[in-house]
């Protein structure tokens, strides 16, 4: 059971900051681990000192936690102690001088354009399931939206005549995202006769499901896990295996746009990144590809060995 301070922090994050359920669940796990560690030492968060926080970070490292996991845990701990100070529950923040672990910046492994084409062409037939699956894959690659944003789409969010869709992103922030011709056609086929209507139940279990763009075979709103399974199944079918996830399609959308000359600010807006620094990782991928093409194509790119 979490302390009152942690529960209040979670409530504040949900109500005031609009954090998603998955984010709140991660915060709860990290807070629970931290408070459990403190309790084993006879402490609670209000009694923690800087040395206790440093020892906790060291314990996470010793336990073999990845740098990104340690950094995330410290962000959560720091958030708790700052909240306690701001709410007048504590006088000092013991995390103020604790350094953030350095997290190696990994590059997203985008698919090649040929691999994406192979994936999208793997959906064959005109059954309701095939129409839905084609819409899923085309939308993910066309818009670069997150899997949670995809399954959260409702029919009023679609403005297909304008080739746009309204997406509810992280923190409850809305953005308008362009939809390419192939994705638009795929959505319209899914929403037409013989598509989505085949999955509509006699009675909706939840009122919100009636407006869901994507449905499962039981007539409910398709879940994140359900959409993930669809993506992975087609990835397996074309030999991509574990290389393919919904997020890889997001990476691929961004990388391919930059490869073809898109402005990074446009890609930032498309993906819903709060900071352009988050988007800049894709420019490194494109630079690597540019170098590879240059080395292969330019007669004086490499020294003969």
Description:
It contains 13 helices and 3 strands. It is mainly alpha-helical and 305 residues long. A 3-stranded antiparallel β-sheet has the order 1-2-3. The longest helix has 20 residues, at 67-86. The termini are far apart.
- Helical content (DSSP H or I, runs of 4+): 40-55%
- Tell me the number of helical segments per DSSP (H or I, 4 or more residues long): 13
Low-confidence stretches: none
Biggest β-sheet: strands ordered side by side in the sheet: 1-2-3
Arithmetic mean of pLDDT: 88
**CATH second-level architecture of the largest domain:** Orthogonal Bundle
The multimeric state of the shown protein is single chain
SSE-based structural type: mainly alpha
- The rough form would be described as globular
Output the CATH class name of the largest domain.
Answer: Mainly Alpha
Task: Please outline the helices and strands.
Blueprint: H1 4-15, H2 21-39, H3 50-62, H4 67-86, H5 113-120, H6 128-143, H7 147-151, E1 158-159, E2 164-168, E3 174-178, H8 181-191, H9 224-237, H10 246-259, H11 264-271, H12 276-279, H13 281-297
Antiparallel strand pairs: 1-2, 2-3
Summarize this structure as a short list of keywords or feature phrases:
DNA polymerase, domain 1; hpI Integrase, Chain A; single chain; 53% helix; three-stranded antiparallel β-sheet; mainly alpha; 13 helices; 305 residues; 3 strands
């Amino acid at each position: 059971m979490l302390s009152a301070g942690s529960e209040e922090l979670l409530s504040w994050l949900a109500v005031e900051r609009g954090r998603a359920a998955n984010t709140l669940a991660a915060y709860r796990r990290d807070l629970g681990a931290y408070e459990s560690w403190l309790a084993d030492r006879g402490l609670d968060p209000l009694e923690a000192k800087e040395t206790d926080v440093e020892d906790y970070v060291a314990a996470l490292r010793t336990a073999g936690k990845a740098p990104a996991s340690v950094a995330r845990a410290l962000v959560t701990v720091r958030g708790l102690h700052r909240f306690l100070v701001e709410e007048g529950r504590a006088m000092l923040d013991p995390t103020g001088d604790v350094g953030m672990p350095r997290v190696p910046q990994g590059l997203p492994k985008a698919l090649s354009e040929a691999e994406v084409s192979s994936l999208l062409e793997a959906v064959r037939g005109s059954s309701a399931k095939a129409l839905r699956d084609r819409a899923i894959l085309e939308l993910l690659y066309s818009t670069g939206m997150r899997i949670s944003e995809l399954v959260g789409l409702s029919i009023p969010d679609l403005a297909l005549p304008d080739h746009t869709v309204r997406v509810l992103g992280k923190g409850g922030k809305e953005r308008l995202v362009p939809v390419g011709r192939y994705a638009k056609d795929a959505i319209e086929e899914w929403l037409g006769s013989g598509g989505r209507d085949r999955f509509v139940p006699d009675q909706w279990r939840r009122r919100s499901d009636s407006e869901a763009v994507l449905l499962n075979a039981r007539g409910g709103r398709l879940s994140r896990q359900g959409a993930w399974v669809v993506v992975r199944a087609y990835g397996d079918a074309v030999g991509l295996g574990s290389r393919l996830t919904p997020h890889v399609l997001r990476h691929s959308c961004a990388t391919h746009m930059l490869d073809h000359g898109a402005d990074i600010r446009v890609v930032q807006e498309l993906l819903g990144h709060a900071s352009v620094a988050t988007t800049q990782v894709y420019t490194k991928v494109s630079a690597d590809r540019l170098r590879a093409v240059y080395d292969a194509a330019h007669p004086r790119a490499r020294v003969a060995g």
